[in-house]
Structures are given as C-alpha cells and as structure tokens.
C-alpha cells in the first residue's frame, strides 16, 4: 500500500540515495508476477546490503540510503466475482487494493495461488512495482543478526538511523487483521499483514523457536509439555527411516536437519540450550508436513507464538495438551474436544473483545473426532466413554486452585465447562483473529475439584501411558485435513463481510 507520510520526508538539502526505480507493470500470469516480485525484492535488499557492507568497510556515505518494498495492486470497477463459494480470493468491492510484499521467494507458492484466484475471480490484471514503504536495514538481512553484529564491531561516526531506515513499529500493528484499519489514501489492503509486520514476525520466529521460517509447515501442533516433543522426535526419526513415509526431512532447533534415509544427525550440532519455544519440523516437499512447538505454560506464550506463525498462513493449528477435568464423571486420560471457550486468559482483550464468539469449525472438529475413534478403536456412542465434547476455560493464573472454590464452581457450572487449561482459548481466539483454522484436543491429567491433584509419581505414569496415543491422534487428524482442499478447510466462519482478498 502507499504510505504518503514517506513522501518528501527528507529536507531539500539532504541527499537521498535511492535504489533503482521499478514502476508498476501489468501482469496477466501469476507466476510471472511473482517472479517480478522476487526480482524487485532481491534488487532492493541487495542495494541496502551492499551499502551497509561499504559502511562496515569504512567508506563514507553521505545522506541517506533507501530502498522500497515491492507491492501488488489490483483495480476493479465492479462487485461481480466469478466464484461465490470461496471464502477468499476476491476483493470486497470496486476500487484500488494493494499490499506490500516481503520475502516473495519464501511465499512464492502462496502468492501465485492468491494472485491467480484474484485474476480468475475478477478477470483483471495484477500490477507489480515499488511501493512507498521503505525496507528497514535489519530486514534486508534474513537472519537479522548481521546488522547488530556488524554495528557492534564498527564505530560509526553517524548513527545508523541517520543513514538507513530502521524498523518502524507504526507500520507493524495488526489493525488490518483486527478489522480496525482505516486507509488514509483510499487504497484498501489485499492481505492481513503489511510487509514490515511479516518481516518482524519472521525474525521473531527464529528468535523464539531457533529454526528458520522456511522450515515451518502448513499444519502446526502446539503443546504445553516436553513429553509430547520427545514423542514427536521419536516418531519423526522412525519416519525418516521409512522410504515410503512421504516426509523428506526432520528439522530440530538450531536448524539441525536429518534427511530421509540418512542416519540421525550428529547430536553435537544441536544447541546447548533450547530457546523459549522450540520448534520441530517434519517436512514434506510441498510444505504440507507437520510443525510442532512446545509453547510452555501460559496464555502469553500462546499469543506470542501464534502472532508470529500467523504470517506464514498455515492451513490449520491444533492445541494438544493437558488440562484439568471439571466433571466427576471424567477419568484421568480422557480426552476433551473443545467446541467452545471461556476466555479468562485476558491477553487478547485489546485485539479481540471477549464478547466475540469463537465458533467451532466443523471440518476440524470432525477430523479430530474421527481421529480419536480410529486411534483408540472406539466409535459411536461408546466414544463418550473416553472423550467429552464441551467448553474449555482458559485462565491466566496457574494457581487457580487457591481461589474461592464455591465461586469457581458456580462459574464453571454456568458456562457448562468440562475442562480448564491456560492456552487453548488463546490459540483458538488468535486463529479466529488471523483467519487460521484451529482446534483443541486436550487430555485430562488431574481433577483438582474432585481431590485428584497432579502429583509427581502419578503424573509420570500418566505421561508414559497417554502421550503417544494423544500425539498419534493429532497426527491422524492432520492427515485427514491434509486430504481436504484448502477451499474447504478455510471456513467462511473466519471471514468478515469486508475482508482482505488473500487467505
């Protein structure tokens, strides 16, 4: 999108060294349009990188150095679209719609799909060229470490901010995704995220998970216990030894990659200390593999990681974790398939009001229920013996057991809640907010209201017995959703009446 506030920003006497210009060009082929985006982005980021290298080499740079993100733009004069069944792939009305683009190499298939749908639905070409949004120097380096490391080793006479554009938080908010964006130039967005917002998350993902963004897969599992990660690693290594598994590699923190058919990668290559939310990637060639992240405990971590993974536009994310059972009829090891949430987590209140309902998504719910039946060997009415569908409460206080118990019991009863945890509502609510299909399947590990507290010995036996089955269910559900078309999985329940075109 255009950013008028950057026009004429410099004083007339200050020299501005601009990257070579790329005027808007017309494209009728999505593949060629994305190829041009890649070409522009590489040229503009190379321009910034080369000048920074000159600075490190001691060369004097007068004035400022600036390059711009590429953009895609579409202009329509009608409300008509070809296919009304889709929940995405069309603009909401006549006018000019545009978005800045970053890392088109990383998002190549995604962009080709989205632009192809736009061209097909509206029978108009796509425009590709420079935007008015400068690329921050840090984001011209994909790993984000080169700038700080180079600057720390050098002694510049002028601050970097006097020479290059640095990250600007005013361009990284979530107003588009939150539905509060108001254009100042009449141009509506095509995507939920601006290029700087995406770049910010790509760098944060590497920081929090110790893996590069390109390793993330389209199906994401979240857990709040390391036991699940250990089992996922064990299963993934078995799949690497199976030539018919369909998975090509397994990536661990530190970007340690084991290829299918190869021996397990040397343990000495793995980092000595795990990051805050380590990620593990069971990769397929088309990106339809499985990423699993240990988000730890609490809604803050759940919001943080989903804020950043959302920019990768996954097809679904699922929460697989432990919870407290609230009904006396439940047994340790039983499953809870969430179909509603009580949001007492509080971390999303400013972005998504608590009065907004978080609906269950039929395709995800059915996949999870069928997966439970297949893995446990129990189906039909008997499935109620091991799985309860109901409302999950998510709190932001791990020591909720110390609160006023009669008041808690009353609230749980009024909400019809069957389980309690600290992350599920946050993950589901952020899925709703970012238009990412979501689901929750929890396993009951204690029943505090009924005198069954989680104690060390009991918990250890429970983990050994139940984790493998729970993870198998999650993976089976992913396999079922992988066989669905994207058009079916991305529900219209997640789209508003005035939506961005990109999924």
Question: Which terms would index this structure?
Answer:
single chain; 503 residues; alpha/beta; amp nucleosidase, domain 1; 2 domains; five-stranded mixed beta barrel; 20% strand; globular; disordered N terminus
Secondary structure: elements and pairs:
Elements: E1 16-18, E2 25-27, H1 30-56, E3 64-66, E4 68-76, E5 95-100, H2 108-122, E6 126-134, H3 146-153, H4 175-178, E7 188-189, H5 195-209, E8 219-223, H6 226-240, E9 249-252, E10 256-259, E11 279-283, E12 290-294, H7 299-309, E13 316-325, E14 335-344, H8 362-376, E15 387-395, H9 405-415, E16 417-421, H10 424-434, E17 438-446, H11 456-482, H12 486-489
Parallel strand pairs: 1-3, 5-7, 8-12, 8-13, 13-17, 14-15, 15-16
Antiparallel strand pairs: 2-6, 4-5, 4-6, 9-10, 9-11, 11-12, 13-16, 14-17
Helix pairs in contact: 1-2, 5-7, 6-11, 7-10, 8-11
């Amino acid at each position: 999108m255009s950013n008028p506030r950057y026009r004429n920003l410099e004083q007339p006497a200050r020299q501005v060294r601009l990257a070579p210009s790329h005027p808007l060009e017309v494209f009728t082929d999505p593949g060629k349009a994305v190829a041009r985006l890649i070409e522009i982005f590489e040229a503009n980021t190379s321009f910034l990188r080369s000048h920074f290298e000159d600075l490190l080499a001691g060369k004097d740079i007068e004035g400022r150095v600036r390059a711009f993100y590429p953009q895609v733009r579409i202009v329509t004069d009608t409300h008509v679209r070809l296919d009304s069944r889709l929940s995405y792939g069309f603009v909401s009305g006549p006018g000019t719609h545009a978005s800045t683009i970053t890392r088109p190499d990383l998002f190549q298939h995604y962009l080709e799909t989205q632009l192809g749908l736009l061209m097909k639905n509206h029978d108009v070409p796509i425009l590709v060229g420079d935007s008015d949004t400068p690329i921050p120097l840090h984001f011209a380096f994909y790993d984000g470490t080169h700038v700080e490391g180079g600057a720390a080793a050098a002694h510049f006479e002028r601050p970097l901010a006097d020479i290059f554009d640095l990250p600007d938080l005013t361009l990284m908010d979530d107003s588009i995704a939150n539905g509060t964006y108001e254009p100042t130039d009449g141009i509506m967005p095509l995507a939920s995220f601006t290029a700087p917002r995406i770049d910010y998350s790509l760098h944060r993902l590497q920081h929090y998970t110790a893996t590069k963004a390109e390793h993330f897969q389209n199906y994401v599992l979240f857990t709040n216990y390391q036991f699940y990660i250990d089992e996922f690693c064990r299963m993934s290594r078995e799949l690497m030894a199976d030539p018919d598994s369909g998975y090509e590699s397994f990536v661990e923190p530190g970007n340690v990659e084991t290829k299918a058919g190869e021996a397990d990668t040397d343990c000495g290559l793995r980092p000595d200390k795990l990051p805050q939310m380590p990620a593990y990637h069971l990769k397929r060639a088309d990106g339809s593999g499985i990423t699993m992240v240990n988000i730890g405990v609490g809604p803050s971590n759940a919001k943080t990681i989903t804020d950043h993974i959302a920019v990768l536009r996954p097809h679904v994310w699922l929460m697989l974790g432990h919870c407290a059972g609230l009904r006396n009829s439940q047994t340790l090891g039983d499953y809870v398939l969430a179909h509603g949430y009580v949001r007492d987590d509080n971390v999303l209140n400013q972005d998504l009001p608590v009065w907004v309902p978080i609906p269950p998504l039929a395709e995800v719910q059915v996949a999870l229920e069928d997966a439970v039946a297949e893995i446990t060997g129990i189906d039909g009415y008997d499935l109620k013996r091991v799985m309860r569908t109901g409302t999950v409460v998510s709190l932001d206080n791990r020591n909720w057991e110390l609160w006023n118990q009669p008041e808690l019991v009353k609230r749980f009863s009024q909400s019809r809640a069957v389980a309690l945890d600290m992350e599920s509502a946050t993950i589901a609510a952020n899925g709703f907010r970012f238009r990412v299909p979501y689901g929750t399947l929890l396993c009951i590990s204690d029943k505090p209201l009924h005198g069954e507290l989680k104690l060390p010995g009991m918990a250890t036996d429970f983990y050994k017995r139940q984790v493998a089955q729970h993870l198998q269910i999650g993976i089976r559900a992913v396999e079922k959703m992988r066989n669905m078309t994207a058009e079916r999985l991305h529900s219209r329940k997640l789209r508003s009446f005035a939506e961005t075109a990109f999924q």
